[in-house]
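Exercise 7b. Backbone tokens:
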């Protein structure tokens, strides 16, 4: 059964915005997860940070100045710090009603723990709403091709209706789970 929503589209189309607006609309739902936010200095992107949906805490994921470890383009990625952050999120808590992740992308997928977590979440009874890279190959394509996901391509024209569809699905799923 398709109970997980994956949102894809080109960079800058509004995938993160959809996640943030859904978090605002679903304030009565206990959500675990995170969204990514650009780190800018002087109008220039320096890297990305993870913002926890529940605590609003920030964890630096990548930065141009990171010299150690793996890189994606011009950004060094703090895989160890990211994995440490993931341990703090109550993804599988009995209190969690929805998991939201922004995003399943090249940087995040450098972590084997993250990719295993995503597979575990997709297999779990809880609904997952996540953004996923438009391109990426490997695990990204495997996740997008699963039979238990609604893969939705976002555009300027579909953004608002997509939010409405996902919100209705979350509320419907929550009612079924509570009965």
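Sequence design result:
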């Amino acid at each position: 059964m398709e109970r997980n929503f994956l949102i894809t589209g080109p960079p800058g189309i509004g995938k993160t915005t959809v996640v943030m607006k859904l978090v605002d609309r679903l304030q009565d739902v206990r959500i675990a997860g995170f969204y990514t936010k650009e780190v800018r200095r002087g109008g220039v992107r320096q890297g990305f940070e993870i913002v926890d949906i529940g605590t609003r805490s920030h964890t630096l994921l990548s930065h141009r100045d990171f010299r150690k470890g793996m890189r994606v383009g011009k950004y060094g990625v703090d895989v160890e710090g990211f994995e440490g952050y993931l341990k703090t999120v109550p993804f599988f808590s009995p209190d969690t009603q929805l998991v939201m992740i922004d995003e399943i992308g090249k940087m995040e997928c450098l972590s084997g723990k993250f990719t295993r977590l995503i597979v575990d979440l997709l297999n779990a009874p809880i609904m997952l709403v996540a953004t996923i890279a438009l391109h990426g190959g490997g695990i990204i394509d495997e996740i997008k091709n699963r039979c238990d996901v609604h893969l939705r391509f976002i555009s300027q024209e579909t953004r608002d209706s997509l939010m409405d569809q996902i919100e209705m699905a979350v509320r419907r799923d929550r009612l079924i789970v509570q009965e």
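Instructor comment: The mean pLDDT is 92. The chain has one domain: 4-178.
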